[in-house]
Amino acid sequence: MNIGKIIIVIGVSGVGKTTIAQNLGKQLGLPFIDADDFHPMQNIKKMESGSPLNDDDRKPWLEKINVALNEYKSTTGVVLACSALKESYRKLLGKDLGSAIHWVVLSGSFELIKNRMESRNHFMPSDLLKSQFDTWEEPDYGMKVDVSHSPEVIVDFVNEKINMKGKAEIGLIGLGVMGKSLSRNIAGKGFAISVFNRHVDGQEVDVAKLFAAEHEEMNPELAFDDLSAFVESLAAPKTVFLMVNAGAAVDAVIEGLCEHLSDGDVIIDGGNSHFKDTERRFHALKEKGIQFIGTGVSGGEEGALKGPSIMPGGSSQAFDSVGPILKAIAAKDSAGTDCCAFIGKGGSGHFVKMVHNGIEYAEMQLIAEVYAVLRYGMSKTPAEISAIFSDWMKTDVTSYLLEITADILQKKEGEKYLIDLILDKAGNKGTGSWTTIAACELGVAIPTMTAALFARYQSSQLDMRLKASEIYASANVDIAFDLGKLKAAYQMARIVNHHQGYDLIATASEHYGWDINYDDLSRIWTNGCIIRSRLMEAISKAKLEQGNILMNPKLNAEVLVSRGALNDLSAVLSKTNISAPCMLSALSYLNGYVEKRSLAHIIQAQRDYFGAHTYERVDAPRGEKFHTNWLS
Ligand code: 6PG
Predict the structure, then answer these.
(1) Which residue is closest in CA terms to ligand 1's atom 1?
(2) What atom of ligand 1 comes closest to residue 427's alpha carbon?
(3) How many A from CA of 105 to the centre of ligand 1?
(4) Cα(530) to centroid of ligand 1, in Å?
(5) What is the mean pLDDT of the chain?
(6) Residue 429 Cα, ligand 1 centroid: separation in angstroms?
(7) Which CATH architecture fits 353-594?
(8) What is this structure's pTM?
(9) Which of 90, 179, 322, 420 could serve as a FRET partner for 114 with CA atoms 20 to 30 Å apart?
């Protein structure tokens, strides 16, 4: 079926919509229509009587235009000039138009437009123009055009971009759950996207075509299982977003792609790749003239569709060109800014995503440990625990993970809680263990994150646990613990967990010369990602010095208050049979972090005793080495 192009030129009164739209129509051979010609009689009468239209008046008008646009979509296509100042108007205008629609967003400063109108003797009272600017909700999608250029330049620019639209602005390879959601997000934001999924006989057949046919925002003409046709469909410089399984598959796809790409083209890897692989690919591709971005994408399936947190690293030049797409599809923070910021060169984007997942592991485990205290120590039902978590959600400890756990705990199958039917063996895909390995390589202590990882490993020894429980298990001890204190201890452990994550990132940034901006990083983790939380918002507002959380004056006030709660909880926990490695490690870490004299003098003495490894002395200059003959 033919799909006609629907070009909608929008912007405030006086910005030049009609001129641009008419000229575009001429150049592209498309009819031109003006939104004003669609007003129903009652609107015309109202305007003639000097009364402004309200949104109720506008609704039937916009719906009428939308019907016309849909007719043009199945015939010639069209260019429409319409102010479409608000997002709600644009929603009505764009209904059912899917990928046929091309928004051309004209913008200029108040002064520029006022002067222009005056020079054309077209007087518009300042108040009226001001109200247009006040109402204007600039879309975060579409083709942005600065009207300070001449109409000829603007029309040529838009024309070129629209022609390019036969070609896609970006291509995505790998239509798994995340790839599909990201593709729909990109298409929904008005970008022309080609999608590719490999063909595997009997297993993966017409995946791209079927997916594109199923979702109206996708363009079925831009769905491929032939790599060369897919790359051919992309406008130059070609940008390809990979959403394939981390590891060898990424290398294989890159190798195949390189046969079709040329100098200046861009590859983005959005999977959970290891940062060292990203570093290696970045350099290898640079040699071939191809720009590489390794980006963390967090938020799961829903986030990918509605707005993930995006952590790109690698080629800053490539980010300059592809940044607008990544920013447009990202979640927005509380100020409405995109949760996407360039992290740094090389593998830095994937490094911070890896640490995000390390923090995520411990956030999940800490919730599980609080659950254990309430369920096994205090005999609460899952529904009661869910209610407690729901109360906590109204406070500073709230987080996405706490919210979903409150939901999970309510879910029943018949009389039984679903949570009681789920096998107690935790899976993992690798990022948590990479975090611990990276910490060991860089010499950073992250025991709370590692404890969460090891708890997952330990859980998988199910058969052994069942046997051991017969020999060792003793009855659980009933505990009474104040809920407010439990919440404070939980928050304390979370702060320690986040501190460890940032410490690892800061050390890596220094080591690899990434120069990571902690304000940007914290801000893009306030929404879209799995570890989004009110604590992350506080961290973002606290403006970390060198990524340090525990020494930050805005954050350590809470530590000073809540440390005792973690002490008390740990004391109570140690009288039970509850395994709570994250809570206990957080306390130990905190004690170790603040102690004036660590136990390392004993270790150093032992090392010197059996291996003559030498030690430094408190009463001698740093760096001077001593050895003692301990037996003499
Ligand atoms: C995210 C998630 C996502 C996923 C990880 C961890 O940020 O959207 O972290 O990347 O949950 O793959 O999975 P595992 O728990 O299986 O290691």
Answers:
(1) 298
(2) 16
(3) 37
(4) 8
(5) 94
(6) 7
(7) Orthogonal Bundle (1.10)
(8) 0.80
(9) 90
The model's pLDDT over 339-385, given as tens digits with 9 standing for 90+, comes to 999 999 999 999 999 999 999 999 999 999 999 999 999 999 999 99
Q: Give domain 170-346's CATH number out of 3.30.1490.20, 3.40.630.30, 3.40.50.720, 3.30.930.10.
A: 3.40.50.720
Nearest to 363 by CA among 496, 249, 264, 251: 496
Instruction: Determine the distance separating the centroid of ligand 1 and the alpha carbon of 357, expressed in angstroms.
Output: 6
Please report how many Cα atoms fall inside a 13 Å half-sphere around the Cα of residue 79, on the Cβ side: 22
353 tagged catalytic: yes
| Shortest-distance atom of ligand 1 to CA 309 | 7
The CATH code that applies to domain 6-162 is: 3.40.50.300
At a CB cut-off of 8 Å and minimum separation 6, what does 422 contact? none
Pocket of ligand 1 (CB under 6 A): 272, 298-300, 357, 360, 427-429, 431-432, 529-530
Cis peptide before 237 (omega within 30 of 0): yes
pLDDT tens column, 412-423: 999 999 999 999
Q: What is the DSSP letter of 241?
A: E
Given the residues 169, 279, 360, 363, the one annotated as active site: 360
pLDDT in tens, 428-464: 999 999 999 999 999 999 999 999 999 999 999 999 9
Residue 360 a catalytic site member = yes
pLDDT at 160 over 90: no
Pick the closest to residue 493 from 549, 562, 593 (CA basis): 562
pLDDT category at 1 given cuts 50, 70, 90 is very low
